[in-house]
Amino acid sequence: MRRLLRAAVAGALALSLTATTAGLAAAAPPDRLASAVDRALAAGVPGVVVRVDDGRGRPVEVARQARWTLPDHRLRSDDEFKMASNTKTVSATLVLRLVAERRIGLDDPVGRWLPGVVPNGSAITLRMLLNQTSGLFDYLDDPRLLGLLTGWQPRPWPPADLVAVAVSHPPLFAPGERWDYSNTNYTLIGMVLEAVTGRPYTDLVERQVLRPLGMGDTYFADGTGFRGRHARGYEPDAEHLGPLLPPGVPVGDGFAGPRRHEHVDVTGIDLSPAWAAGGLISTPADWRRFLTALMSGRLIPRHLLAEMRDAVPQGGSSPHGYGLGVMEVKTSCGTVWGHSGGFPGYRSHNYADAAGDRTVTVLLTTNFALAAPDAAAAQAELVDAAVCRLNGR
Known about the structure:
Layout: H1 2-23, H2 32-42, E1 47-53, E2 60-65, E3 81-84, H3 87-100, H4 110-113, H5 126-130, H6 146-150, H7 159-167, H8 183-197, H9 201-210, E4 219-220, E5 234-236, H10 238-241, E6 259-260, E7 263-265, H11 275-278, E8 280-282, H12 284-295, H13 302-308, E9 312-313, E10 321-322, E11 327-331, E12 334-343, E13 346-352, E14 359-364, H14 373-390
Antiparallel strand pairs: 1-2, 1-14, 3-8, 4-8, 5-7, 6-7, 9-10, 10-11, 11-12, 12-13, 13-14
Helix pairs in contact: 1-14, 2-14, 3-8, 7-8
């Protein structure tokens, strides 16, 4: 179920952004961002947070939600949010800091640092892990992980166990042959970071990124709880999830959690096994601190920032590229850099211009519901409208 829904959401987003670039900007009204938020809510997105900061004045902040969600929580732009795969940018930053210190090389084989962990580890480089060209199977596509994703079978998943699930499957292609998104790559990156430094991965993030940048509202998920005020996430219940799935894909019991207005409150599903591939919780303001520091060259030298933004095509119909832990996202108002993230109940987009002066965050309190064509198109329009507002258009 996870791979099929991921493909549906990603494909719809790529197609919609392509269409937006081709025709929507020319007729964009002054209140395009507000209209895009309205469209997302009308398409069934339970809640939307947008933060646009052009670096010159007070940021534009929007927080809107469906009426039926109000008894659970009143959404605010400073709510904590499961940022999921945006964590990959932090992980890549830590690798590049080690490269700058000459303690590691981008073309080192993963087998050098994790001997015997990955079949054919001598042919898969750290660069391939970072830019998603390793060919390794994504462990989240294995049925054994379905209980984790749906919340029905929570259990600890140590990184080594997740990698073992992944390598029990044959690779999707030869190393470096093409691009395919795999969380396995970044779980391995976290393991490499620990092997090289002798320190826990989470401690590296805290010492080198969160604490120096004053990201006090950013931390790694620990079980099902948040530390502070947080957005609640929702997914369609089993009955309404079924029509979003391709024919023949079983719905089962859907997601675990309290029922809410044809939805399930999935806030309590445990994010912590995502670890170096997606375990961070944060806020829009905190993530601006990170992206501004990264893109301005404060965290890694500029020549390595250029390496980070050396993007390979994502393939298929997507116009976007993927660098070393960052996405190259092309919109009708220019190219931005950052990442997106998805986890049950939470979909996030965090981007910056090339200099890090201007940033945008778009958060939606659902992920799997975005497989619906109307919701996917609304998401794409919302991201495009927010980037255009960022650029004064």
